[in-house]
Specification:
By secondary structure, the chain is α+β, with helices and mostly antiparallel strands. 35% of the residues lie in helices and 20% in strands.
């Protein structure tokens, strides 16, 4: 395939302005947010309509070119960047950023329909403007895009109350590997007419089709909200506090974020003006938020009463409640800035894992010792969404020690009945790990689905698993 021939056909099919070929102009599209993966591409294409996306895919297919879909490029496992090296063949990056229209918002249906390139924060604002809540909430919501959020089944801080993205998607529009368009955007709460095809594409990381639009559930805006920053003696205390709060106020508990003291110190050292919310330091902290659509003062009373009971029982060591929206934002920023503060501090081995909530304390008890036994100079620390069992267990360590640390952590996670990826996906970073820890039957089924939907293997090559190596599993 001649590069010039492909680019000429591509530009005539859409527009010159939508195709970037200059290395400098393409540079930010070729490397992931963490700077761990950098690839090569013939060009970056930025279509502005679903029809143009379809044309790009058909053109790539006819010329034997691979297509790497990319949203806001905020992922942590290299899922949105092209591969490196000549052996991978010709690739293009297909950026969805120009598909950025909010197509509709229906308050009666409680649905927002948005293009894949709509930035999450913009979709949240549009929903808020009509008195509704789009509950997906991420630290990267100012740059993460709807298509990427759907394609990775993003989690975030609202999963405890509202579920993952998968539970919020009512319908999708998808460009398939042959360049055809599947319109499954019906915003229905019930639709039992055959297979629920949208579920194939949610969390598939762009390997089965390119999401171009999504219909997402909305909820009434919270009218009463209480946010507390709580000092805790241990992870066991955190799980017990969560249990007690849920027993008393049910699904009004919308977020329960756990962080180790080391995480707070990272943020305090990196964030100008940041202050420790509590008078004394504690080994662990929980950022707790409860909300309801009712206009009531009883929620704050209930939280304060339950924290007081927990204090008397030795579960809580100290706590402070936000008394304004500014104070709430200040508390949340201490949680949201952990990843950025960590990145500034130095390289880490990241572990986005999940275990049953009942086994979180067990994991956090054994994991640090297991890491230190294998790599004595490593510095582990943990934070995450304890309400749904998702812990980010990261370790400051050299690149040479990362593989050893990974196996130690993932062996423990597997023994506890957990998953090696809770919300970040597999991407490039965990391809070999998925093959090691996922059961063979599941791998065979996933590969069969991928071959059925993308027989020419043009979509997001090398991500999740490598189709060229399926013979390792007997396919």
């Amino acid at each position: 395939m001649q590069k010039s021939s492909f680019l000429r056909v591509l530009k005539s099919a859409i527009s010159d302005a939508a195709v970037k070929t200059d290395r400098e102009a393409m540079s930010s599209y070729l490397v992931d947010w963490r700077g761990r993966h950098e690839g090569t591409a013939l060009c970056v294409v930025e279509p502005s309509t679903v029809d143009e996306v379809a044309v790009v895919v058909r053109t790539a297919l006819s010329h034997g070119v691979k297509v790497v879909p990319q949203g806001g490029n905020t992922g942590l496992v290299g899922g949105g960047v092209p591969l490196a090296g000549d052996a991978v063949g010709q690739q293009i990056v297909l950026s969805l950023r120009r598909l950025n229209r909010i197509r509709s918002i229906n308050v009666l249906d409680n649905v927002i329909v948005a293009d894949a390139g709509v930035v999450l924060q913009n979709a949240q604002t549009a929903a808020r403007d009509v008195g509704r809540l789009l509950p997906v909430s991420l630290a990267a919501e100012g740059s993460a895009q709807i298509g990427g959020i759907v394609s990775t089944n993003a989690g975030g801080t609202g999963v405890l109350r509202y579920g993952t993205t998968r539970e919020l998607v009512l319908g999708l529009e998808v460009v398939l590997a042959d360049g055809s368009i599947w319109n499954g955007l019906q915003p229905l709460r019930k639709n039992n007419s055959g297979y629920d095809l949208k579920q194939l594409f949610i969390g598939s990381e762009g390997t089965l089709g390119i999401v171009t639009a999504a219909a997402l559930k909305l909820f009434p805006l919270p009218q009463s909200r209480v946010t507390a920053f709580v000092g805790l003696p241990s992870p066991d205390a955190a799980v017990n506090l969560l249990r007690d709060l849920q027993s008393e106020i049910g699904d009004c508990v919308t977020a329960f974020e756990l962080m180790q003291r080391e995480c707070l110190e990272l943020v305090l050292g990196a964030l100008d003006g940041a202050r420790d919310p509590l008078q004394h330091s504690h080994p662990w902290y929980a950022l707790v938020e409860a909300s309801t659509a009712l206009r009531t003062n009883t929620l704050a009373d209930a939280i304060e009463e339950n924290l007081a009971i927990a204090f008397e029982a030795g579960i809580v060591a100290d706590a402070v409640l936000a008394h304004s929206e500014q104070q709430r934002a200040t508390l949340w920023r201490l949680r949201e800035e952990i990843s950025e503060a960590e990145r500034r501090h130095g390289p880490t081995a990241k572990h986005d894992i999940s275990v049953p909530v009942s086994r979180i304390a067990e994991f956090l008890h054994h994991a640090p010792a297991a890491v230190k036994n294998s790599v004595p100079n490593a510095i582990p620390f943990a934070f995450g969404h304890v309400g749904d069992g998702n812990i980010h267990f990261n370790v400051f360590a050299s690149a040479e020690d990362t593989k050893t640390i990974n196996l130690v952590i993932y062996d423990l996670v597997t023994a506890l009945g957990g998953s090696i990826s809770a919300e970040h996906g597999i991407g490039l970073s965990k391809v070999d790990l998925l093959k090691r820890y996922k059961d063979t039957r599941s791998m065979l089924l996933m590969q069969s689905v991928r071959k059925a939907l993308d027989p020419d293997a043009i979509l997001n090559p090398g991500k999740v698993f490598d189709l060229a190596k399926t013979t390792d599993l007997g396919l």
